[in-house]
Amino acid sequence: MGLSQLDLPPTKLGNLPVYEDKVCHFSHCATIEYAGERKIDIAPCVVNRQHEGQFEVCNRVTNQFEARRRWPTPSGSRTSSVQFADLPTTLKTLVGRLDDWLQAWPYVPTVPNPKLPREDQACGWTQPQYGNFRDKVNLYRGWIDDAFAEEDRDESIGKWQRVFGENFGSSEAKRAAEAVSESAGSGALVVGGHFPDLVEKVKALGASAVPAKLRKLPHVHRPVWRRAQEQFTVKVTAELRTGRYGQTIRSVRSAEPLMADYWLRFSATNNVGATFTDDYMVRWRVTNTDKMAAQADALRGDFYPSDDHFSRSESLSYRGVHFVEAFLIRKRDTKLVGQSDPFYVVIE
Which domain holds residue 40? Predict the structure, then answer.
């Protein structure tokens, strides 16, 4: 670490790298071939354009609307301009509908081929495969709904990155992370000359000067685990060391100013300072901020395993206000059962 609702660009589906060589066009639909002979036909249908109850699809060859007595696909349903107003809304609508349908079918369904009804297009799925698909769609639906409803722009970008990956809005995420000294708190305290950057502000005013928005920076990866109903207290302590396996110098406090070229050994404990049992594991979110880390392409923000049981070591490298958090995961069902407050690492 320093320690060593965003709009998608208007583009054709076939121009997106993930769909390269997988999309082809026919007269009435676009087809995505996603796994061998497995494919999805996308055929937009216009409702009530001329008459109430009239369904039409467009023939791209003749550039004419053609009436249909029924929906072109068996899973079709009436649409509205509100539900498909833009790309994020369309994604939310489609994944929500898919999840609703899947949750109503706990077992592998029969999916007849519209062109050949005796062919079951779901015959290649085992129950475990279908169960995993059903669970993942439900999980992603929650992420999409969460990102869609988020009003804070930085938080929204971070939540959409959980859906699409860290390349989504990456340039904007980097700008936000490297500009924390200019945007900290009221902004005027830093830019106005009282403090040259956030490090000096925290050194003078203490941990209270760390802006709450720091944890919501878009490059900070959002948790991917389902949260368990039962939650435990998780605390993080740290020791200053001469190296990864060097001598322990002393314990340090959150937001205590430190010099570079040393190491910190972080440990996660419960509310009384005891370690957790082997039924659990800890994942560490290590996040860097400010200009030096950004210039070194070392903003991080991802989750990392423990080095030894419930501890992890990190080097002190880049000037800035960084932070480390511990996430307690129950092994038997990989659910999140506890999350620590951030331990702020201030490097001079």
Answer: 17-79
